[in-house]
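pasting for the record
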Amino acid sequence: MTNLLAFLGFGSDTAIDLAALVLRLSLGGLFLAHAGLKYFVFTPAGAAGFFRSLGLPGWFAYATIAAETVGGVLLILGVQTSLVALGLIPVILGAAIFAHFKNGFWFDRQGGGWEYPVFWAIALFALSLIGGGAFAITA
């Protein structure tokens, strides 16, 4: 089996570059989707009200929308991937702690549990370790 995986390119530099690309595109796309949800569905003012209901300042919503938008675009393009991925970890952990922790672990609960945002943070950390790969604009 090991020989077959090696023959198919698994573990090669090309496979690692493709893995980085897949992670960058999916994580960046998720951040853009969540920013779009706050902007187009909940509206920035509605998101600010939700943040206030969690005990956070309303302006955190605007900062979060900006971080998700800019961070998502930078991940997709592969600009300073490791730093951007690390910088987005507090954003998603903030969601886990303030919005989802009280709902328990499983994300299928009303309001979502914390399993999904914590896994998202782990994926960001993994991306920060491997970097943007050969298909990124910068390392």
